[in-house]
Amino acid sequence: MGRKWNNIKEKKASKDANTSRIYAKFGLEIYVAARKGEPNPESNQALRFVLERAKTYNVPRAIIDRAIEKAKGGSEENYVELRYEGYGPAGSMIIVDTLTNNVNRTASTVRAAFSKNGGNMGVSGSVTYMFDQTAVFGIEGKSLDQVMEILLEADANVRDLTEEDEMVMVYAEPDQFQVVQDALKNAGITEFAVAELSMLAQNYITLADDAQVQFDKIINALEDLEDVQQVYHNVEEAE
């Protein structure tokens, strides 16, 4: 599981270095989630998920409030969630999750990001079967035994529990996100280094230097796209 946390850590570090862009993406994601139901995280699970993740990226409260108020105001902006799948060099697999108000534009720009950097788009389902949606939590200041005891008492269905980088990492079934979060919060753990639903590869690969350079170009091009919210892959990030 260490590879999985390393992948998430590298993604967070990349986004932390591009705060204005990631804040804008979170603003849109919060707006869309708030429109799926009541604009209240207590009754809207999708909104609750994105707000928990936004906290771990230090998204300012003003951006969160503005997105929720926009949803409350009955904005006519409509967005759809689309997933694209593709391949990079040497067996690398990539999943791209988007939010868009222009499907043709998004499909074109995602395809171009792959093709112009040596990758290839795949058909729906060609890559996702090699990934598992997973609830991931990172907890600082607690031992593995302490977290294990909390989760056992809550009868949470956890796939794996590890200590990595002076942090306890919890990997659970996606439908256990709320169970795990509530158990930890009830035990006094209210801040998380990671709290998200992620697509984690079943197996990770390493790339030779040239392939890694090409792969990085594909990932960077995809993450630079305005409509792209998340990019997942099966390449182990270099230490």
Largest sheet: 4 strands, antiparallel
Reading the helices and strands in chain order gives HHHHEEHEEHEEHEHE
Oligomer: single chain
CATH topology of the largest domain: Alpha-Beta Plaits
Distance between the amino and carboxyl termini: 15 Å
Count of domain modules: 3
Number of helices, where a helix is a run of at least 4 consecutive DSSP H or I residues: 8
CATH class of the largest domain: Alpha Beta
**What value does the Rg take, in angstroms?**
18 Å
Within CATH, the superfamily of the largest domain carries the name: YebC, transcriptional regulation domain
GO biological process, one term: regulation of DNA-templated transcription
Family: Belongs to the TACO1 family.
Subcellular location: Cytoplasm
Main location: cytoplasm
